Every structure is written in C-alpha cells, then in structure tokens.
From TrEMBL:
It comes from Virgibacillus chiguensis. GO terms for biological process: aromatic amino acid family biosynthetic process; chorismate metabolic process. Residues 1-88 form the Chorismate mutase domain. It comes from the Bacteria. The keyword Coiled coil applies. PANTHER family: PHOSPHO-2-DEHYDRO-3-DEOXYHEPTONATE ALDOLASE, PROTEIN AROA(G). This is 3-deoxy-D-arabinoheptulosonate-7-phosphate synthase /chorismate mutase. GO terms for molecular function: aldehyde-lyase activity; chorismate mutase activity; transferase activity. It holds the Pfam family DAHP_synth_1. Keywords: Coiled coil, Transferase.
C-alpha cells in the first residue's frame, strides 16, 4: 500500500469515528431533552452552550483556529437542537403526523374537506340588508351554502369604513336564514366572540389578526368552526402555529385560507402563494381554501386564480360579490357584480365537472 493510500485509509476511519461520535452526542442531547421535558425546563441553555465552547477551545491544540472550532461545534449544537424541534413538530395537533386522515367540517350541509369544491361568497362589507339579500339570493342559485360578509372591518386606515358591527351581523343572519345559508364573518375582538356566536356559523379570523394570540385562544375556546386566514407577511410555519393556538384550546374545526402574501410584485394586490395549498394539505389535516379576491385584488384574475386553486388541491374558494361594486364602501376594484358572479360559477362548475 502506498503512503498516500495509507493516510487516506486512516482518514476514512477518522471520518467514521467522528460520525459515530456526533450521533452518540445527539443521543445524549435527546436524553437531556427528555429529562428537561419531565422537569419542564427549557431545552436551549445559552450559558451551558458557552461553557461547552470555552471548554472545547481551551483544549484546542490546533491546527484549527479557535474561531473555526467554535463554528464547527456551533453547527453540531444547532443540529442537535433542531433534532428536538423535529420531535416537537411531530407533536403539533394540526399536523398530519398526529392525525393522518382529513378533517371534514360540516357547516350547514357543506362538508368542507371531503374532496369536493366548496365556495364562500358574499360582499366585502355588510352595507345594508338589500345589498346582502341580493347577493344571498344569487349565490343560493348556484348551490353555494356559505355566505360571507364583513361586519367588523379591520381597515388599513382608521378613517376607512369600519363596518356596521353587530347590526351587520343581524343583517347577515336575516339574509342567510331566508336563503338557508351559513354565515361566515370576521371577528376582531376576543370580547365579541361570545356575542357573535348567536349570529355566526363560522368565525373568520382575518389576515391582520393571524397572530392576535388572545383572539386565537378565544376562538379555540368555543365550539364553532373557524376560518383562519394567512397573515400578509406570515410564513407557512407561522400560519400552522396560529392554527395550533386554536386547536390547542379544544376547537378542532379549523379551515385554513391562503389569501396572498406581501412581495415586491405590484401587478397584483398581494402575491397568491399557490404552492402553500399543497404544502398545508401535506403538513396538516385541515381543509384549505383560497381567497381569490384579496390575493389578486383584480377582478380579471378571480377566475384563473380560482381554477388554479382547485387544480392544485384546495377544498374551496372564497370570493367577494357585490350588487354594485363601483359604489362599494371597501374593495370596490375586485368585487364581482352579480352577472360576473354567475359567469364565474358556470365556469367553475364546468371545471369541477370535467375533473370528476
Ligand atoms: Mn374585502
């Protein structure tokens, strides 16, 4: 054997020894994690990490510099910590690892998550009874079972129309009852949830409140389905954790709704993150819907975006419909008028028929 081969042979052995040792180390870290979990101690201990690094570098005889050694060991520490985080994710109640089968939510006979396409339609904001009743009648004609409408509107500017409040909920309930529809409406204040239960079939938590943890907890405490929208700058992981807040309090009936995220692109109001749909379907057992109105902000994109949502596996589509969008108090650029809505539904029906 040549000298080079001999040295390479020793190097191969050292590699295997390092491999064995870092895995042995990982097992010890897991053991420590288990002990800490029993004593409800935090897993990450920066003081302990600093002590370990100091001990290691003080024994360092080179040829590696201390900085290099610190860098290598920090990577090993981080990997061990991430190993424990993977265990943690396995335990999320919304995860498919925890519950492999789809969650199906029955709302007024619409079984969301059952593999069929469902629609949530209605005006952006409740402006009056006539307006809501006109939309309710139109959506009923297409077999849509869920009527949306904003009574409490969290607007970007405090000077924009803030909604009719409880009066808006009363109007929604009346119009929904007349057409046998279920009501989906946003609640922005944890203190309003109890009162809203009399009017709503689904509590909507809007994008701007996705990380309003007190609101999430309050929605988790009641027995009413929740439609949770993704925050405008929320990662998928943050979105999933927001849903976990709700389920951790006992409420298992959660619908996730992708509604576009903020990017540098200006051609649309937000950027519809269409790949979020299959990711959420893989990672969680919850139904996933797509709000085509707020993600695109463009009437001409509602239909193609809705088709894309269904093609990629969404359980439903949410869109805004207004009898006269030009005079709407909010989102006038992207709501559909009634004839446009009829065409939209015809096209969607064609698509879902062809998919069968
Ligand atoms: Mn709107």
């Amino acid at each position: 054997m040549s000298e080079l081969d001999q040295v390479r042979d020793r190097l191969d052995n050292v590699n295997l020894e390092i491999l064995q040792l870092i895995n042995e180390r990982a097992k010890l870290v897991q053991q420590i994690g288990d002990i800490k979990a029993k004593q409800s101690m935090k897993r990450f201990d920066p003081v302990r990490e600093r002590d370990m690094l100091d001990q290691i570098t003080s024994s360092n005889d080179g040829p590696f510099e201390n900085a290099t050694i610190e860098h290598i060991f920090k990577e090993i520490f981080k990997a061990s910590l991430e190993l424990q985080e993977d265990d943690h994710r396995k335990a999320l109640l919304v995860s498919r690892k925890k519950k492999p089968e789809n969650t199906i939510i029955d709302i007024n006979g619409a079984t969301i998550g059952d593999g069929n396409v469902h629609f949530v339609m209605g005006p952006c904001a409740v402006e009056g009874y006539e307006q809501v009743a006109t939309v309710a009648k139109a959506i009923k004609q297409h077999g849509v079972k869920l009527l949306r409408g904003g009574a409490f509107k969290p607007r970007t500017s405090p000077y924009d129309f803030q909604g009719l409040g409880v009066e808006g909920l009363e109007i929604l309930k009346k119009a929904a009852k007349e057409h046998d529809l279920a009501v989906v409406s946003e609640i922005v204040n944890p203190a309003h949830i109890e009162e809203a239960l009399d009017y709503l079939d689904v509590i909507q938590i809007g994008a701007r409140n996705m990380q309003n943890f007190e609101l999430l907890k309050a929605a988790g405490d009641v027995d009413k389905p929740v439609l949770l929208k993704r925050g405008l700058s929320a990662t998928i992981s943050e979105f999933i954790n927001a849903a976990e807040y709700i389920i951790s309090r006992g409420n298992k009936n959660i619908i996730l709704c992708e509604r576009g995220i903020r990017t540098y692109e200006k051609a649309t109001r937000n950027t519809l993150d269409i790949s979020a749909v299959p990711i959420l379907k893989q990672e969680t057992h919850l139904p996933v819907m797509v709000d085509v109105t707020h993600s695109t902000g463009r009437r001409d994109l509602l239909l193609p975006a809705a088709k894309a949502a269904i093609a990629i596996g969404a359980d439903g589509v949410m869109a805004e419909v207004h009898p006269d969008p030009a005079v709407a108090l909010s989102d006038s650029a992207q709501q559909m008028d009634i004839p446009t809505f009829h065409r939209f539904m015809e096209e969607m029906k064609d698509m879902t028929e062809r998919m069968k």
